[in-house]
Amino acid sequence: MVRKAISHWKSLAVVAAVVLVVGLTMSGNLGLTGLSNDAFADPTGIKYTGAGSCAAAACHGSATEKDGGATRHNENHIWSNNDAHAKAYTQLLEDTSKAMAKNLKIEDASKSERCLNCHGLSGFTKHDNTVHRIVLKPEQINAEKYSVEDGVSCDACHGPADKYLKPHTEKGWTAKLRTDLGSEKLFNEWGLYDTKNLKFRADVCLSCHLRIEADLVAAGHPELPFELSIMSSDESWIHWRNHGEWFGAKAWAMGQAVSLRESAMQTAERTKAGADEKLIKASYDRMLGHAILTRQAAEAVDAEGRAALDKLLGDVKANWADAAKREAALKEVAKAVDAWSDKLNGIAFDKAKTEKVLAGLASEGEAIAPHGYRAGEAYVMSMLAVSGSYNTDAKPADGEAKAEKVAALYDVLGDAETYDAAKFAAGAKAMAELYAGGKSLPLP
Ligand code: HEC
Ligand code: HEC
Ligand code: HEC
Question: How far is C-alpha 135 from the chain's CA centre?
Fold first, then answer.
């Protein structure tokens, strides 16, 4: 079921891209903004390395899984064979990329920082309550075992490995430093980025998976859907083992909160860039979708947090007409959600909380529908993720039958072209019958 969710949404992204290319000729001049134009320093000062540094059979390049240890030693093998990230660079050689490059007046997408930032090895930093990819200069990469063709390789998610490469092979080293230093110092001092920490994981995934710039979208790049639980649990390609009960529900909540933060920043950036009104509205609608979903998580685990967030969402609405004030209000939302997601990171999920979230989400279908296709898509992925977590951890007898009904929402969703808000609202009503007792929380 999970795999269906991912392949389905992929084909939809392609359709969306085609539609927007057609729109481009009429949309006029778009300002540049966002990830690749921001120059940020690397907080670690440590060199990045290539995938080749991790590929020895005794390290992570074993063809078969070895059990019983901290790692299974076949991570490189899984990544290079099954993981789309290993093919991210190849995407830049495709005709679709050439067409985008032409629209953007870029000579060669496979050499452009604007693409390699996300489709190749780049650095990571967090600044002003949002995440940035850092375009690496040659002297920031230990070039011995690096090839640009490796695409999104190990260090893009695990941090610059040059300093930790040797010590981390010692048994227990990583676990001890994680405990002794905590995630932030582990990264700043050693370059080792803690992907086990769900806030950190959401930050690093969403540094590439949401805040695509308006001019890239206008040039034909798909808007980027993301849901952390499903997208980091798909056994067909992941090289890791997730830990902890109710992982799905908690990862979902973290993914929504960080997506809300990033879509607020995206709306602010598109506003600042004077992007096409349609693209500003698209990111705002998406943000409201993530807001509706995140508020149900907050209501179940931290009602005070929800009230504080509602006030700031109200400020965005009140200041919408004035672009400068709107931008400032959106940044306040991002700041507050960032702090709230740190709090969320310390809250354990259980059966009761997950049931409450699930019923709450089930009640929001009608409220989500008017916010468009991307919000509807986020809703369907959320229902799949949280009900999937419930089925896995609480193992209810009717779990499978209900899962089928949730998955059927994908057919109601359709694609970006055929999306019909009234039809989606009617279809999503079935969710409230499936998981009853929730209360929709009207947006301020
Ligand atoms: C903000 C990060 C980011 C930037 C910048 C970016 N991409 Fe992407 N791109 C992605 C992600 C993530 C996907 C995967 C989308 C998915 O399937 O969810 C993707 C998918 C694609 C695809 C496959 C499209 C499809 O419809 O399946 C192509 C082609 C592509 N990108 C080309 C480019 C080119 C060319 C550039 C530069 C002009 C670029 N990208 C810049 C993140 C980015
Ligand atoms: C797209 C991001 C991403 C890329 C690229 C990536 N990883 Fe990972 N990796 C993760 C996440 C997320 C986890 C799960 C959390 C954890 O255990 O740290 C993980 C876990 C691991 C683990 C622990 C496995 C376990 O079962 O606990 C190892 C070892 C690892 N990765 C090695 C690698 C190597 C080697 C490469 C390159 C060949 C690589 N990773 C590329 C995201 C990534
Ligand atoms: C450096 C940028 C970057 C980071 C960090 C990153 N991704 Fe990606 N991801 C991409 C790009 C680019 C693609 C598209 C690759 C392609 O289509 O070949 C992609 C593709 C994917 C896909 C496949 C999408 C599809 O349509 O098949 C999944 C799932 C995914 N990423 C999940 C994650 C998760 C989970 C994390 C965090 C643990 C993560 N990514 C971190 C850039 C990134």
Answer: 20
